[in-house]
Design a protein that fits this description.
The protein is an alpha/beta fold. It contains 15 helices and seven strands. Helix 7 runs parallel beside helix 13 and helix 13 runs antiparallel to helix 14.
Amino acid sequence: MNWIQIGMAKSGNSWLYRLLRGILERSGHWEGSWVQRQPLFEEARDWELSQADQAEHDVVDITPEGIFWRIASRVREPVEDVDAYLRRARLVWTHSPWCERTRSFLGRFEKKVYLCRDPRDVAISTAHFTQTPYMREHYPVPCESAEEWLDLNFEQALRDWVLHVGPYLRQRRELDIHWLFYERMKADIAGELRGLLDYLEVDLDRGQQQDLIESTRFERMRRDQPGHLREGRGGQWREVLDDRQAGKAREIAGPMMRLMGYPVERSRETLPALADGKDREEAIRQAIRTARPGIGDILRRKTRHTLHRLFSGRSGGPADQQGEDA
């Protein structure tokens, strides 16, 4: 039994990990992670990371160059023997966008789960995460506030979301990827958990399900990792984004959001869903094409970042680096 969870950073991945691990534990299938058996783990477990148990997670990067295991952004090494790795890594976590190695790697897993969240909320959550004490110390960006980061990086964050979601959505049926929406989990975690258990082919009685739900409530997880989790609510983009930013979201990510039932206007409040027939190949391709930057977009972004650094007099790590799991 081996599972992989997939999702962009700041999409609720910590919550999903604790649900999946909790299912393995309560069904008697959890045997510890691969990384816990590595000599480095005794040292890594005492590192100051953004989550208390982050060193235990079997996180991988799937790249054209190969598969890499890592501990946050402190350690990153190639997986030399993928078969041996997967014999001990029962629950793997990746943020990686689709590449030519993704299909074959996912094919090694019995179950695949993709977690999707509204791109506008993902961008806002990422912006606030860059300003946490941990990130400001270890991965500083040349921005003094979440609002400043969002102003500089919002459009790119939208493009990244479409280019991450789209290829996985295209392969959803062929690779049997179970699709979860963060917003639906917030609205009805009991119902979403039952659907997840059906997909995973695992039986937990009602008492076990309720215990799992209670142990993974946001308020409890935030007490355990206050520097990592902030609000955990959906739809915050309605209060945070100005009209220009909301318009950019419709322009860049609107086609993909519509495919998944996300409301594109402030006045609408509906839960996302993958209706039958809505993930048609050509519609997804067109949504991806809409989000790809042109030469003018790339030049404007580079110019904005260069001018920002010059006139702010600040420097820092790469503005797009998101080195921690979320």
